[in-house]
Specification:
This protein is an alpha+beta fold and about 100 residues long. It has helices at about 20-35, 85-105, and strands at about 35-40, 45-50, 50-55, 55-60, 65. The protein is built from 2 helices and 5 strands; from the N terminus they run αβββββα. Strand 4 (about 55-60) and strand 5 (about 65) form a beta hairpin.
Length: about 100
């Protein structure tokens, strides 16, 4: 079995000694996240999403096509909240408003 030239840099090993170590590390971080498992927004299955184009993703299990980030299907800014998470946020807002009203009185 031949030894691996990509032990340190992973997927960026295909660049060889070119471009510098910093760039190759960044490429590795992006590609590992991109090709990892992500949760489908529709069927909630944890699978490896297919990247069709820049920011367009498809779930291989249910076939749902959706817009996401350039390198990951769901970004932190574009994350869709579950109903339970939204309910908790609304409760926190109400508590905060009540607290502010009590301070004013």
């Amino acid at each position: 079995m031949p030894f691996s030239h990509t032990k340190v840099v992973g997927p960026a090993g295909r660049f060889g000694a070119r471009y510098g170590m910093g760039v190759r590390r960044k490429v590795t971080q992006i590609e590992v996240k991109q090709r990892g498992k992500h949760r489908c927004p529709r069927c909630r299955a944890l699978t490896r999403m297919e990247r069709l184009a820049f920011g367009i993703w498809r779930c291989p299990k249910c076939g749902f096509t959706f817009a996401g980030g350039a390198w990951v299907p769901q970004t932190t800014l574009g994350k869709t909240m579950t109903p339970e998470e939204l309910r908790l946020i609304e409760l926190e807002k109400q508590k905060w408003k009540e607290k502010v009203k009590k301070k004013k009185e």
